Amino acid sequence: MELKDVIKELSEIDAPSGFEDAAAKRVSELLKPYVDEVRIDNMGNVLGFKGCGKKGAKRLLIEAHIDEVGFIVTGIDEGFLKLSEIGGPDIRTLPSAQLKILTEPPIFGVVACMPVHTIGNEEMNKAAKLKDLYADVGMSGECAAEKIPLGTPAVFHSVFKELGEGQVCGKALDDRAGMAVILRSLSLLENEELDVDLIIMGSVQEEIGLRGAVAGTFGACPDYALSIDVTYAKTHDYKKDDAMDSGGGPAIGVGPNMTRALSDRLIALAKEKEIRYQLEIMGGDTGTNAWVIQTSREGVATALVSLPLKYMHTQNETLRLSDAEALSRLVAAFVISLKGGEL
Predict the structure, then answer these.
(1) Which of 68, 206, 280, 317 is catalytic?
(2) Is the backbone peptide bond immediately before 90 cis, with ω within 30 degrees of 0?
(3) Of the four listed, 85, 95, 280, 293, which is most buried by Cβ atoms within 10 Å?
(4) Which CATH fold topology does 70-156 show?
(5) Could you read off the pLDDT of 16-34 as tens digits, one per residue?
(6) Separation of alpha carbons 329 and 184, rounded Å
(7) Topology of 3-68+171-341 in CATH?
C-alpha cells in the first residue's frame, strides 16, 4: 500500500483520546507483516516487537500517537447535543461543522450557528465558545436521548482529499500520518540486517496529557527512542520564525528534550542521504510524547522528528506527501545507522 493510501485509511478511522479501539485494531493489523509480535497493553497502546537476533542488543522505540482530538456528549437540550472537548479541537472552526457521533451505527450532526443576517458586527467578530455551541442531530429530545447516551464520543466528520501538487487534507493527520510514516519506514527496512531490537508503539491519549506514552514506554523499557509527531507549518497568515516550511522536509528537534547525539545523527544522515530537513529549536517542553519518554525509568536517549502540518486540530489538517516520504527515509536510515547498537 502506498504511503498516501495508508495516511488516508488511518485518517478516516474515528478514535478520539480514550476511545482508540478502532485505530488500535487497524494499526495492529498493519504492523503484523513487519514485526515478530503485536500486542495491546493495559492502556490501549499498540506495541510491535521485532528482534534483531543478536545477544544483548539495544532496544529502540519508535512511536507515534494514534488518538485524535474530539468531543464527548454531556447533555441533550430539546434534541440538541451539549458537548465537551476531548483534547484541544480548534473551537473557532466549529460553527456549521459536521460531526460524527460515535454511536452504533454513527449519527451525524451539524454544529448549530446563528444566521449571519441576524447578528451584529460585534458578535460577528467574536470567537465561538464551546459552552455556547450545540450539535443539531435532527432529532426530538426524546429520540436523541434514546439513541445517544451521555458520554458518547464524537469527532470531526470530513473527507480526506488530495490538494494541488502533492498535498492532502483530512482529520487526525495529527498524528496518524506519523504512524503511516513508521509503517512506511518498516517496509524500507524489510531486507536490512539490524543491530537493534525494534519496539513500535502507537500510543493513546496523547492529546489529553501524553498518558499512553508514559505507561507504554515504562513497559517497553527502551534504550533509545524516536518520537514522530507533527509541528506547525507556515501559511500565508502564519509566518512566525518558529513555524516550519511545508515541503521543506521533516523538522528535526533540537533542545533539552532531545538527546543531542541523536539529533546530530539525524542531521548528519539527512545530509548524507540528501534528504531535505529543517531544524526545530525548542527550549523546553515540546508538547509531544518525547517529553515523557525521555524521563521514563532512569532516562531514555530520545529524538523527535516532526511533519510540518497546516490547520492543526481542525477537520482539514493539511500536509505535503513529500515531507512524509522524506521522514520515512530518514527514520529507516536512522535505524540502519545503529550498527553495533551503539551511538
Answers:
(1) 206
(2) no
(3) 293
(4) Elongation Factor Tu (Ef-tu); domain 3 (2.40.30)
(5) 999 999 999 999 999 999 9
(6) 8
(7) Aminopeptidase (3.40.630)
